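Chapter review: from sequence to fold.
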Amino acid sequence: MDRIGTRIGILGGTGAAGSALGARLASVGYPVVLGSRSAERARETADRVRATWTHVSLDITGGDNDAAAACDIVVIATPWDSAATTAKEYERDLHGKVVVCMANALVRVGPEFQPLVPPRGSVAAHVGAAVPGCRLVAALHHLPAKELGNITHSLDSDVLICSDDPAATEEVARLVERIPGCRPLDAGELSNAMAIEAFTAVLLQLNMKYKTRVAPRLTGIR
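The token string follows.
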């Protein structure tokens, strides 16, 4: 496995999505730091990931959110309602960096998941307003956490990427390309994040209806 120098920090790295993403990125060669308000909890999560995949050398560690925010690329995998406030706490560390927001504003109402409209229209836009100096990208919303974290199997999904920074889009696309089975697609400017985040509710509804874990794959794009 080729080692990559770019360090990936994940704010909210102890949750299902954050830890799964960390395991997957570490499996393709990225050094990963799982961040949390509790450094001990983050270290326990990283230990659990390594213990699950003992046959693979995973460069994944746990620390506090300061350690994650100090990395080269930072992913926000916190609950949606704390994404902007968490990013704001580390505004100085995130300045000038590619920051990937993968949070979705959803609520379960009875048997259904429904999208919420957060301030400024999307979680990503809310994060951008809180940390205007970062190079914000909205991506990775639709990858099922269980499949993402199962590093012995490839995924079968397109990853829609939105940003107002074309170079940041390209950088995240290169990261996504390293994940087996994933195809990065440039989905336009950050304003499209609202639709992409909301579509996650549809995917979750399909999961419940058909008892599966769906991921989007678009046709007609070579």
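Two observations follow directly from the output. The chain has a mean pLDDT of 96. Strands lie at 8-11, 32-36, 60-64, 73-76, 98-101, 106-109, 112-115, 135-138, 157-163, 182-186.
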